[in-house]
Design goal:
With about 140 residues, the chain is α+β, with helices and mostly antiparallel strands. The chain contains four helices and seven strands, in the order βααβββαβαββ. InterPro entries: Acyl_CoA_acyltransferase, Bact_Acetyltransf, GNAT_dom.
């Protein structure tokens, strides 16, 4: 059953929790990468200029976030706390994006991250092309408008 969450814009005091979710989720999902690749503060540097929304449970706990580069509706990051995955938080974050379902959002999903790829398939994303990046091969996916 989906967990009820409130999706709101991120604030400055959210950063420590966002960084923690970012690190823990990446360590769990990117099992082929060294833990040395996950450096504190990476999220803030990587998401500069992006719009970030957080998913917050009724008790105030932040359990996920999404960051979007607004110039081209590119979803740069979508992460849920590892202990809250599979509870509908990711879909809730996507549905909260501006004009979701009416605008074409894109993202890159690492080819080795099969659980994420299955998640995006279930959300209606379609593969556009296979590319190669510094973290390895990735799929460019789009959610049709």
């Amino acid at each position: 059953m989906p967990t009820p969450v409130i999706v709101r814009p991120a604030s400055e005091h959210d950063w420590p929790v966002l960084e923690l979710i970012f690190q823990l989720s990446r360590q769990a999902a990117f099992h082929w990468q060294s833990s040395a690749d996950f450096i504190q503060g990476q999220l803030r540097a990587q998401s500069e200029g992006e719009c970030i929304w957080v998913a917050e449970e009724n008790d105030g706990r932040i359990v996920g976030f999404v960051s979007v580069w607004p110039a081209n509706d590119f979803i740069h990051h979508l992460y849920t706390a590892p202990d809250r995955q599979g509870l509908g938080i990711g879909p809730a974050l996507l549905r909260a994006l501006p004009d979701w379902g009416q605008r074409r959002y894109t993202l890159k999903c690492l080819a080795l991250n099969l659980p994420a790829r299955r998640f995006y398939d279930r959300q209606g994303f379609q593969a556009l092309e296979l590319g190669d990046g510094e973290d390895g091969p990735y799929w460019l996916l789009a959610h049709p408008a």
